[in-house]
Amino acid sequence: MASLQDIAVAAGINGFSALMFLIIFAMLRLQPINDRVYFPKWYLKGIRANPVTAGKTVSKFVNLDPNMYLKFWKWMPAALNMPEPELIDHAGLDSAVYVRIYLLGLKIFVPITVLAFAVLVPVNWTNDALQNIQNLTYSSIDKLSISNVPSGSPRFWVHIGMAYIFSFWTWYALYEEYQIVADMRLHFIAGEGRRPDQYTVLVRNVPLDPDESVTEHIEHFFCVNHPDHYLTHQVVYNANTLAALVDNVRSLNNRLTYYQNKYERNPKRRPKTKTGFLGILGSTVDAIDHYKAEIEKFCKEEAAEREKVMSDPNSIMPAAFVSFKSRWGAAVCAQTTQSSNPTIWLTEWAPEPRDVYWDNLAIPYVKLAVRRLVISFSLFFLVFFFMVPISIVQSMANIEGIEKVVPFLKPLIREKSVKSIIQGFLPGIALKLFLIVLPTILMTMSKIEGLTSLSSLDRKSAAKFHLFILVNVFLGSIITGTAFQQLHKFLHQSATEIPKTVGVSIPMKATFFITYIMVDGWSGIAAEIVRLTPLVVFHLKNTFLVKTEKDRKEAMDAGSLDFATSEPRIQLYFLLGLVYSAVTPVLLPFIVIFFAFSYVVFRHQIINVYDQKYESGATFWPDVHRRIIIALIIAQLLLMGLLSTKKATYSTYLMMLLPFLTMWFHLFCKGRFNSAFTEFPLQDAMVKDTLEKATEPNFNLKAYLEEAYIHPVFKAVELDRPMAINDEENNPLVATTRNAVVVGTHPSHEDGPKQVPLEPEE
Amino acid sequence: MASLQDIAVAAGINGFSALMFLIIFAMLRLQPINDRVYFPKWYLKGIRANPVTAGKTVSKFVNLDPNMYLKFWKWMPAALNMPEPELIDHAGLDSAVYVRIYLLGLKIFVPITVLAFAVLVPVNWTNDALQNIQNLTYSSIDKLSISNVPSGSPRFWVHIGMAYIFSFWTWYALYEEYQIVADMRLHFIAGEGRRPDQYTVLVRNVPLDPDESVTEHIEHFFCVNHPDHYLTHQVVYNANTLAALVDNVRSLNNRLTYYQNKYERNPKRRPKTKTGFLGILGSTVDAIDHYKAEIEKFCKEEAAEREKVMSDPNSIMPAAFVSFKSRWGAAVCAQTTQSSNPTIWLTEWAPEPRDVYWDNLAIPYVKLAVRRLVISFSLFFLVFFFMVPISIVQSMANIEGIEKVVPFLKPLIREKSVKSIIQGFLPGIALKLFLIVLPTILMTMSKIEGLTSLSSLDRKSAAKFHLFILVNVFLGSIITGTAFQQLHKFLHQSATEIPKTVGVSIPMKATFFITYIMVDGWSGIAAEIVRLTPLVVFHLKNTFLVKTEKDRKEAMDAGSLDFATSEPRIQLYFLLGLVYSAVTPVLLPFIVIFFAFSYVVFRHQIINVYDQKYESGATFWPDVHRRIIIALIIAQLLLMGLLSTKKATYSTYLMMLLPFLTMWFHLFCKGRFNSAFTEFPLQDAMVKDTLEKATEPNFNLKAYLEEAYIHPVFKAVELDRPMAINDEENNPLVATTRNAVVVGTHPSHEDGPKQVPLEPEE
């Protein structure tokens, strides 16, 4: 058990490392050479141009203005200053709502922390249960926790009362937030300009007709069943092979550019390469000629494949994007059942064009059900048995195993210092590698499940990751043993025994989780803002691949909020906060600092860095809400279990009510708000339709929609963002409230419009 | 433990009592005087007229043809002969599908019984585990059960294999039946004539508007949001007080008729009554004059209330039946979200006019959620604590308690014989009374929950009753102690321990359940067909109240299938059959006889007796399916528990897969078929609309719908069945395949059309 001093030392170390990251970030971001790493969003929006193209030679790369270094912390207030409507307009609703999760954390935990310190800490401190036990080493942290209250003490009434107050407050905060987010979403949808997905419905499982082609069949079906509303449709081609070929050509082009750059810099020697595996094996050839020939070959193949896909009726999949004359017509089609056989003619809202996951559009109904079954079994095994293959790898990856596989390394390995390093690190490496590839595994599993949009893939992967964290990080840290051993134990314990077993260990693990919060939360978030990997990758690409402005734009990796991995991690902090709120309140300030710090950092990131791949309009909020509800129920059950071991018999009956009320609250919120995230009300559709008819009576909708849902490989230009969105972003509905600032070191700023990046230099 | 002989004796007794009921039934139904008790359906359809009105004097009341008595069993083949399409046409889809539940029972259990007797009985019989245990009395039944297989025997592989085969067969039968019922429903809906509910949507939670009345607000909203489809609407009046007054007048009329009849038969003495409580207390008055005056008084009150309801804007509730120009328009409105606030403008399919439960139409959203919470808590307490009030009543209702309350009965009670009767019966009476009123309590709870149609009330009550039977009849019989004690025990046992505890007791309870099946199943069903209560009530009413033909028609109580209580009872048999299929196969033939016998009896009843109050188109099938799935999962878990105590360690892992597969099968079926029971596909709506437009281009739909959804008390005539249904029934789509039969003793048959009652006399 760590004492308060130990915790303070750990806090100091982690606070210092976080501060170091922040200072490094503040230094790096001021260098013009890193401008594209730390402000890519403004480049992508076309507001900021390249600082390297103009100015003095040295100041092109290094910032020489000492004043700016003194104001290095200025980015924080700048990140907080942008008002929310402008933020939504600038970064999209998804990002704006995402940072609200941190805000919700603050809203829930700041009052709880204040109350817990005002009431629970004195109540716990003024006992002497721990002092009375002989031969027990305890720390000052434990003196502040519920462990210090003797069994059967009437003081537990205070803890029960606080549990109720904390629950009520959490419900209130959750309800209010759900309402705010639902309103934001409805307002966002109402304010949006014309977008293809507003008129379009994705139809899947089109039945095959012996007399008609797929496209004719679709047209006839919708002409008959939606006679006044059907406008046009776009069948889906199976272009997976073509997409692979296009990717291949792009990567060959990259290599060609690399060798051409190399040749330009050193014209005396033409670069060579080998034709075999990774350019290591095979015969040596002239690199530029080789890749030029290769590209030509694959371009021809690509053209042939393109021809084949377009002409072969077998490459048309039984799915289509059907567009309607009005939003009302599309809303009707998306929300109704079309056929009496509910496994054909399945309709749902079309995702945004850039949100479509093309590979999954043509999976038949029965196959989908089987895939879901297989994936749920796999998920179960992944969560509870993932240690099995890792232990096998670990047992094989020892000194003797390596010696067998690569005998020529034997002398090196036998060296004592090397041996100890290998023995120390190897077991950990297998686990680390697994944890690194875990999000990819989960995403692959979601893809196999057959989801049709990137946003839903992200949401489903997040749900899987949340389960993994819950079982393996939270429960795994509290109870020793692998997840499977836990499961085995739980199955052999009674329903009332499980919360007791876990609950009893809760106070003892407080210091561990405090350290975890500081390492993973504080330093992790601070590391996020430095963007080390994109920084290195950008400079490598910039050196070897970039020739034109367009290349440089492509080398820039803005990244995006990774909902699938980061949201479940936030949920762990909600869970820890709720579980420890009534048990060990000392943990709460660390949670609050995490939420506050993350809020600032991510607000900065979404303003200056991230470029979202899609805009789902915050459809993930019901998931966030549900997981906080799960955390709350877990917290209530564990407190119940803990109290029942403390000989507070009345407590079980009193606490039993809380999980049920929480469950009911969840159902109530679901009924109240959920449909705002899944359905599009006819009234709103009608309002937008009417408005549009009045303002643009002669708009050619058919032409507008014709090309919207074409597989990206068929488009001449890259499908980065559809026209309509750009239109809107260039003409924001909310006028910016910030003044234009001219910055000396960045000459490009002079041509910036009214929106400028957040800069500390003013 | 009962031996095979004991069981055979019990079977003999119960079989004999069932046979006696059948013979009594066969005798009674041949008497013309009972014709309206045993063939009310044909009277209600107008096909059969009164046999009492014509013929010889004696044969008006008693059947004197000896031939007919010899053929008394002929009703059975007659009941089975009517082909299903004709049955649907004659009795409605609800009834036709209801008897298919029994058919499904046969389909599942006949092959299982054959297989179990061919494989499991020999496997169990040829062991000697029971013989090897000293000091154990065992019966021949146990020799046939799994108890006779010694622990750790490899023969358990056979039981596990059989459990898999039984589960696969049950899935197959369930899947096929779901498909058949879904097809029947779709076909039924497609074949239906015009009905008001096809065009109508029930709108609830209409928001209040300060500037408009409710009816204006509704009209404007739908004119704007469904401009091409909205036709008309009918607001809902709060007519609960008025309905009570109308009921009161009707009951006073009954009494007046009674006294008038009495006076006519004995004109010398004018009947008297007392004005006070139940005609016992108060001053004596002339009965006919008194009731005439009373009726006049209440009629005036009724008229005033009627006036008030029609004119007072406060009696208009924020709900309405909105009708559309086409089925397509109604289908769209019923399936879509109307407003961005999902707690207002809630739309759902309107129930049939006679299916509407008027009292619940105006409950706001938040109140509904609170009511549901309260009811679920109440249901929990009712199921687990219902013994508490009963024990209190039992402890009070003893000899001393009665002496205190009614001291003048003291000498009588002190009599030894009376005393022993009271002591023997009293404790049971409280429980019996509770069980009799239980369905009413459950129905009241469902009404409080706020459901808007009688069919959904029936379904919800059935779900509650099913839970009660599961906990208190099934588990309560297996494990001793009250439900609450069981719950307490389960909460303190591990998840793996619970199936073991229950599973171990399963084989021991086989004889108990065999007796239960014979008493409740065999004799109970045979008693159903005699219709003792309606028989007595009809003859009482006929004697005292009937004056005109209309009176006689009203005195006839056809009754109806009581889904809320009878379906959960069938589910108990499914559960018993599935649980015992692999444990004690001897029980299976009793189940099979129950299903076969019930099938014949209920098929007879729905053809000749029952008159359904509503037609929901078999919307209850998903519930039936789900509960059989629940029974299957319980059976699998209990077998797993039982096997794990038999030292068959591999069994747990092998059996664990089954519940998960069953769960998945359920989800698959739900996705595949459920929407056929909840949604109305646009394609089908369009087909019917188009057909109708072609055949009746000038039909005045508005006039047709205007009066359809008016509260019954506002209608001049009784709302028994809407016009459209009668139309259809008189012109059946399926031509009858049966020949008209002229029956001597029933002269009225001569005017019968092509459809005639099922008679054994040919």
Automatic annotation (TrEMBL), chains A, B:
Alphabetically sorted, this entry's keywords are: Calcium, Ion channel, Ion transport, Membrane, Transmembrane, Transmembrane helix, Transport
Q: Which GO terms describe its molecular function?
A: calcium-activated cation channel activity
Query: Pfam family of this protein, just one?
Result: RSN1_TM
Subcellular location, principal: membrane
Determine if Transmembrane is one of this entry's keywords: yes
Q: Where, per UniProt, does this protein localize? A: Membrane
Residue ranges constituting the CSC1/OSCA1-like 7TM region domain according to the UniProt record: 371-643
Indicate the segments forming the CSC1/OSCA1-like cytosolic domain, all copies: 198-360
Which InterPro entries does the record associate with it?
Answer: Csc1-like (IPR045122), CSC1/OSCA1-like_7TM (IPR003864), CSC1/OSCA1-like_cyt (IPR027815), CSC1/OSCA1-like_N (IPR032880)
Please list the residue ranges annotated as the CSC1/OSCA1-like N-terminal transmembrane domain.
7-177
Record's bilayer topology term: Multi-pass membrane protein
Q: Which family does it belong to?
A: Belongs to the CSC1 (TC 1.A.17) family.
- Full protein name: Calcium-dependent channel
- Lineage of producing organism: Eukaryota, Viridiplantae, Streptophyta, Embryophyta, Tracheophyta
